[in-house]
């Protein structure tokens, strides 16, 4: 049985969280997970509505994160007085013909990197200092693509690599204000973005073999890590990569 002290350590009760990319996949799972841990969660994405109903009380707002979230953030602050947690989970993977490669690269960086930075700029001033607990937590969802090179998608690798180092830069800049900034780096997770590989027997098996656990990840595998990073359980952790990849980046020649 979990004792009251441990339960409080991982609790998000009373905290206000904003999760981008919340219409489906990783973003939706993390929004649900934070709400289940007690946070008052606002989920945002471009889709008019989430693909599936949330299991927990999440308020969903349709907005283009690449266009900026200043108005949404102002509304949340007007209602709740602050924002304690920001999870940047919005992301795209754009494939293109060679003559459109540069445009695809720009789009990928705009959504996966620039929009995340814009969200941090919008939210950080409203993460009020809260004594020893700090002023808030920003969680940037990166990828193992931020740690190692992957073929055929340079824009995605560059954007996630940039987001990884942006995380460290913001940890330095925002640390004096009690704001922690960490990266959650998933491996291959079964989502709409990876559906084609997941459905292909050969590629599915090849990706599973890359891991130590012999399987793909599911979005639920990321929820505990996100709660840890958002909660006081990680209150002395900032500027770090929390890699949830089934051992992909640890595995050698086996």
From TrEMBL:
Keyword Oxidoreductase: yes
Any matching Pfam family: adh_short_C2
Entry-linked InterPro entries: NAD(P)-bd_dom_sf, Sc_DH/Rdtase_CS, SDR_fam
Key words, A-Z: Oxidoreductase
EC number: 1.1.1.69
EC top class named in words: oxidoreductase
GO MF entry, a single one: gluconate 5-dehydrogenase activity
Similarity field: Belongs to the short-chain dehydrogenases/reductases (SDR) family.
Stated name of the protein: Gluconate 5-dehydrogenase
Organism (species): Caulobacter rhizosphaerae
């Amino acid at each position: 049985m979990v004792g009251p002290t441990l339960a409080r350590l991982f609790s998000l009760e009373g905290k206000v969280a904003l999760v981008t990319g919340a219409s489906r996949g990783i973003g939706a799972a993390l929004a649900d997970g934070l709400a289940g841990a007690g946070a008052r969660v606002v989920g945002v994405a471009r889709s008019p509505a989430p693909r599936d109903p949330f299991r927990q009380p999440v308020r969903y707002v349709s907005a283009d994160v690449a266009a900026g979230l200043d108005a949404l953030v102002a509304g949340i602050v007007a209602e709740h007085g602050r924002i304690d947690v920001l999870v940047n989970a919005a992301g795209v993977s754009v494939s293109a013909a060679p003559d459109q490669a540069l445009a695809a690269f720009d789009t990928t960086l705009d959504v996966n990197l620039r929009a995340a930075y814009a969200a941090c700029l919008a939210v950080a001033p409203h993460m009020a200092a809260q004594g020893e607990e700090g002023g808030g937590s920003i969680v940037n969802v990166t990828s193992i693509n931020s740690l190692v090179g992957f073929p055929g998608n340079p824009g995605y690798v560059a954007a996630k690599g940039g987001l990884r180092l942006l995380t460290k830069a913001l940890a330095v800049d925002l640390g004096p204000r009690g704001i922690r900034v960490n990266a959650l780096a998933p491996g291959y997770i079964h989502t709409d973005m990876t559906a084609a590989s997941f459905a292909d027997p050969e590629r599915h098996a090849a990706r599973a073999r890359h891991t130590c656990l012999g399987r793909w990840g599911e979005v639920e595998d990321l929820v505990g890590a996100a709660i840890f990073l958002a909660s006081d359980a990680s209150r002395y952790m900032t500027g770090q990569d929390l890699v949830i990849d089934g051992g992909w980046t640890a595995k050698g020649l086996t």
